[in-house]
Specification:
Helices cover 59% and strands 0% of the residues. The chain contains six helices and no strands. The longest helix has 27 residues, at 31-57. The chain starts with a helix and ends with a helix.
Length: 157
């Protein structure tokens, strides 16, 4: 996969999340299920945006799977593992302006959503974040931070 595909994927994921969030009322019987899916997909916005920033900063040529970085620690779904790996690279991107990373968000519920995301959410509800804890208002607020995160990355890289 070319790293530029991460940019396209993160943008598509954001558009899908916003569409689903704006259309929750059309399927009220499955609202909690849709909220859960929006939250799950939002993590991939962050993950693909981080991947885009990293490989764009490296000016990587070719498939990312062929990069030594991909196999030395970058191939992970953990936000913090990706960020730690990027920080350890001499030529890693500066992420200091991004929400969630170094700028502590004052809302603990929003921070908990970022910290609690994992791919396991697809199959079960984790201990850190439960679907019953996520409502439309909170998820809408969270997505605004996710969108800011993506926008800052796309402007910079």
């Amino acid at each position: 996969m070319d790293y530029k595909e991460y940019k396209k994927a993160s943008t598509r994921h954001l558009l899908t999340c916003k569409y689903l969030l704006n259309n929750l009322e059309t399927d009220k019987n499955n609202k909690n299920h849709h909220l859960h899916n929006i939250y799950y997909l939002s993590g991939y916005i962050i993950e693909t945006a981080l991947s885009y920033a990293f490989f764009s900063n490296l000016k990587h040529k070719g498939h990312v799977e062929d990069s030594e970085h991909y196999h030395l620690g970058f191939k992970t779904h953990s936000f913090y593992a990706k960020i730690d790996y990027m920080n350890k690279c001499n030529n890693g991107p500066d992420l200091s302006a991004l929400p969630f990373i170094y700028n502590k968000i004052q809302d603990n519920k929003i921070t908990a959503l970022f910290n609690g995301w994992s791919t396991d959410l697809r199959y079960f509800y984790g201990d850190k974040v439960r679907v019953k804890d996520i409502d439309q208002e909170l998820l809408s607020k969270y997505l605004k931070y996710v969108e800011e995160f993506l926008t800052l990355i796309l402007r910079r890289f």
